[in-house]
Specification:
Layout: E1 26-29, E2 32-35, H1 42-49, E3 54-59, H2 67-77, E4 82-89, H3 93-100, H4 105-108, H5 111-121, E5 125-131
Antiparallel strand pairs: 1-2, 3-5, 4-5
Length: 132
């Protein structure tokens, strides 16, 4: 049984702006929760990707006690930055070396690198993806 009724209608929703439309964001429209998981087409991806950049920040073990202040600063004090993802984990030596990204073995032979890796693996670290 087909009816010729309109199913969806375009409306303006003033609480939502284009700045809110970024990958990973969750928002509510009339009581229904939506999460942006991917771009609908190539044009939208190219258009919205030009307006934002991503950066990775790591809160190291010695700054872990100030994690709340750091995240609060990013959210409240900075203009145009927002947190996209946050993950807390305890690194092992192998993952810390991959994360550090040195390409050659000679870099790892420097004396301070082993101290850096030991420090990063000593306690939990918090990884933050910041979009702005």
């Amino acid at each position: 049984m087909k009816t010729r009724k309109q199913f969806l209608k375009r409306i303006q929703f003033p609480q939502l702006s284009q700045a809110d439309l970024y990958m990973g964001n969750t928002f509510d429209i009339y009581g229904r929760r939506f999460r942006i998981t991917r771009f609908g087409d190539k044009f939208t991806e190219e258009t919205l990707s030009q307006n934002s950049e991503r950066a990775f920040l790591m809160i190291k073990p010695d700054a872990y006690i100030n994690m709340g202040k750091i995240i609060d600063y990013i959210i409240v004090q900075t203009q145009g930055l927002r947190l996209n993802r946050v993950q807390m984990l305890k690194l092992n030596d192998e993952y810390a070396r991959k994360l550090f990204g040195a390409q050659d073995q000679a870099t790892y032979q420097r004396p301070y690198f082993n101290e850096i890796f030991k420090f990063l693996c000593s306690d939990v670290v918090v990884g933050l993806e910041v979009v702005g």
